[in-house]
Write a structure and sequence with these properties.
The complex is a heterodimer of chains A (528) and B (173). Chain A has helices at residues 2-24, 34-55, 63-72, 75-105, 114-137, 141-155, 176-201, 214-230, 258-263, 266-282, 307-311, 344-348, 372-384, 425-432, 454-462, 490-503, 522-527; strands at 296-297, 317-321, 330-334, 365-366, 392-397, 411-416, 438-443, 479-483. With 528 residues, chain A is an alpha/beta fold. Chain A has a four-stranded parallel sheet with strand order 6-5-7-8, with helices on both faces. Chain B has 173 residues and is of the alpha+beta class. Chain B has helices at residues 4-24, 59-64; strands at 37-46, 55-56, 73-74, 82-88, 91-98, 109-118, 120-129, 139-147, 152-158, 163-166. Classes of the chains: A alpha/beta (528), B alpha+beta (173). The interface between A and B is large, with 48 and 46 residues.
């Protein structure tokens, strides 16, 4: 059931995101920056909120008038800032919900990723009260409705002896102290907890994308600015506890739970809110549970170079003092609770080279379920079946379900959890040993790597910008990269084969006879 | 440099995002009560009478107590629950037994309840019992009230001021 829901959502999202890829380019697709966009909107909310607060009167009798003055007397500044404050808050809810939906659909919330998912829920429980208390401070009819409904909601909890809602029975029951408490919560209390919550949310992520690209920030801010000018946020009539508002302009981003209090009961609303939150929080542990074995370090092959630490997207590998008495200073240690078994560390390991033949191919770090020796064996098995003048070896990550169909007399296919698990030496191995005339590397949609940096690291390794580098001797025109996600690559492959064929046979043979003898130590292999 | 097609695509996306945000920030409107309705609220904090009588403490009893705990009367802490009824136009709207708050049942009984009712004139009858008697009521008030559309009509209870109090002018009261 859950699998079907996810597959359906993934299909819809994939279609929409491809449209956005076309309009924004993959590297600026807002769907790839939903978390970062949320943080950006909070910056807008913070800056605009500080401006609004300068002119805001923190009292139940002066609040409404001060907001009205701000909105109308200085519409060109205060009015726009107020509108930005509101609309950026609403936009943050949209990006948060899309962010959650997307991580769920793309299965990026389970296994070691449970932490970010789980710590996201408290953030929601902070963001909604933050917005609700903001509406409360205007003290218009909507604020009056929210104040009373919120108090009724709180009153079913066994916290208060006197019902909180009695504070809003009549104009005479109103107290400035309560209003001051709310202002404190909105301006200082909740925001501080929110900042800590965001820090906690990102704690287990290496190089988190906290800021979206500048173009995306400019466009988003521009959209909010235009909206603020065209459709400024306005107050509703002032609160009057002798009356009950009968028509309310309603913010459905922040307040959808409130009508439920009127339709059902406050108890039912609590049950719904807490129950939904619990179910969402516990999703990472619901079946189907599957977990690949985490990466494993083979100490006598590890030279402590630290490349795996540098490349791990989830901070799962750390360097600790050597424990085996060898001359190396440090050794890689994998935290199995953080390892997603993507294999990116294997692709970074200089000992994971298929050129090794005299010693057993066991790198310093590798995935027990996808050994590098098995990857070489698969490469050799696939290439052995190939014939013709445009043989291509396709290496792809498991996100593409169409890859197996590409197999043919001239096309071999080898898959792995993430394309960045493939050490660049494999490309050299295929071309230099004439196992194929070309190598096609494929993976997730550009900007949307399942393991965050698989595409980036692969690109940088091929382009010679990131260690381990692809050797200079490999003719780059014999390599194609297709970051298309779960798409049929047949047309792209056919085009690449044509190009490879036009290049003619491989110019030199760096075959077995020309291969240097395998190095004797991991240190030497690293520099070989 | 982005192509014209890309710029148009981005413009459409940003516009759609802004429109979606702007529309659902205020629309559709919500109606907490219908336009021809008023809200009737009954809320109070009232302590029921003590469950037993106080009695004078004897000199012997006083002598047994530490000096700081000696008091002339010994009173039970527990209070009677408060029973309240509200009838509107002859139809029972509320009949509830309110337990005293507090771990020892020595606190006030509290009530907060609201009913959307049609605007217009209504006959309201209120009854309250706080003495633990099995029949009859200790306080009552009958009145004819006129409710305007959208009016918040609040009924409180204060024994010191004679019982039920209306926080809005009630016709025929």
């Amino acid at each position: 059931m859950l699998t079907w829901i996810k597959a359906g959502l993934r299909g819809v999202l994939d279609g929409v995101e491809r449209l956005f890829d076309a309009a924004f380019s993959p590297r600026h697709n807002p769907f790839n920056y939903l978390g970062a966009l949320t943080v950006f909107f909070f910056w807008v909310v913070l800056v605009s909120g500080i401006y609004v607060f300068i002119f805001f009167e923190t009292s139940i009798f002066g609040a409404y008038a001060s907001v009205e003055r701000l909105t109308h007397d200085q519409w060109y500044a205060g009015g726009i800032m107020r509108s930005l404050h509101r609309y950026a808050s609403d936009a943050a809810i949209i990006t948060i919900l899309l962010h959650m939906l997307r991580e769920f659909a793309k299965d990026r919330y389970r296994g070691p990723r449970w932490f970010s998912w789980f710590t996201g829920m408290p953030l929601l429980w902070m963001v909604f009260p933050l917005g609700i208390t903001g509406y409360w401070l205007v003290w218009d009819e909507l604020a009056q409705y929210i104040a009373i409904a919120s108090a009724e909601l709180m009153d079913v909890l066994p916290i208060f002896t006197d019902p909180m809602a009695r504070n809003f029975l009549t104009p005479a029951s109103l107290s400035d102290r309560f209003f001051t408490l709310l202002a404190f919560l909105h301006l200082i209390g909740i925001p501080i907890f929110l900042v800590f919550g965001i820090w906690f949310h990102l704690l287990r992520i290496s190089r988190p994308k906290v800021n979206p690209p500048r173009a995306l920030m400019t466009g988003s801010l521009g959209a909010m600015l235009v909206l603020s000018i065209v459709h400024p946020a306005l107050s509703q009539p002032p609160a009057d506890l002798n009356k009950v508002p009968t028509v309310l302009g309603f913010d459905w981003f922040y307040l959808p739970a409130y009508p439920l209090i009127d339709i059902t009961t406050p108890q039912m609303v609590w049950l719904l809110l807490v129950g939904t939150s619990l179910v969402i929080s516990l999703l990472p542990w619901l079946p189907p549970l599957r977990r690949a074995a985490p990466a494993r370090v083979t100490l006598d092959q590890c030279n402590g170079c630290g490349r795996c630490v540098e490349d791990c997207p989830f901070n799962a590998v750390t360097m600790l003092p050597r424990t085996d008495g060898t001359r190396y200073e440090k050794e890689a240690v994998v935290d199995p609770d953080l390892c997603t078994a993507c294999g990116i560390c294997v692709g970074a390991c200089p000992t994971a080279t298929p050129h090794r033949r005299k010693s057993e191919l066991v790198p310093g770090i590798e995935l027990p379920d996808s050994a590098i020796a098995a990857l070489r064996a698969a490469t050799l098995a696939e290439s052995a079946k190939l014939s013709g003048e445009a043989r291509v070896m396709v290496y792809g990550c498991e996100c593409n379900t169409h890859l197996a169909r590409l197999r043919g007399s001239q096309v071999g296919v080898v898959t792995m959890p993430c394309i960045a698990m493939l050490p660049p030496s494999f490309v050299d191995f295929v071309i230099a040993r004439r196992h194929a005339e070309g190598v096609l590397l494929t993976g997730c949609r550009d900007g949307d790597c399942q393991y965050r940096f698989g595409i980036d690291w692969t690109e940088q390794r091929i382009l010679g910008q990131r260690d381990p580098y692809l050797r200079q001797r490999v003719p780059r025109e014999r390599i194609d990269r297709q970051w298309t996600g779960d798409r049929d690559l047949a047309p792209a492959l056919a085009a690449f084969q044509s190009r490879v064929q036009a290049l003619g046979p491989l110019a030199h043979d760096d075959g077995p006879g020309a291969t240097p003898a395998p190095t004797s130590t991991p240190q030497e292999q690293a520099h070989g | 440099m982005a192509s014209v097609g890309k710029l148009i695509g981005q413009g459409v996306a940003y516009t759609a995002f802004a429109v979606f945000t702007g529309v659902f920030a205020t629309l559709p409107t919500y109606h907490p009560i219908a336009q021809d309705q008023a809200l009737l609220k009954l809320s109070f904090t009232h302590a029921g009478q003590l469950i037993g009588e106080c009695r004078e403490m004897s000199a012997e009893e006083m002598a047994k107590l530490p000096p700081n705990m000696r008091r002339p009367k010994e009173c039970p802490r527990e209070r009677h629950p408060v029973h309240v009824e509200m009838v509107l136009d002859g139809q029972p709207l509320l009949s509830r037994q309110l337990k005293p708050t507090g771990l020892w049942g020595d606190g006030a009984s509290v009530l907060y309840t609201r009913y959307p009712v049609s605007a217009g004139t209504h006959q309201i009858e209120l009854r309250l019992r706080d003495s633990g008697r099995s029949e009859g009521f200790d306080y009552s008030r009958d009145a004819r009230i006129a409710l305007a559309p959208g009016q918040n009509f609040v009924i409180d209870f204060d024994a010191r001021h004679g019982g039920f109090r209306f926080h809005a002018p009630a016709a025929g009261d």
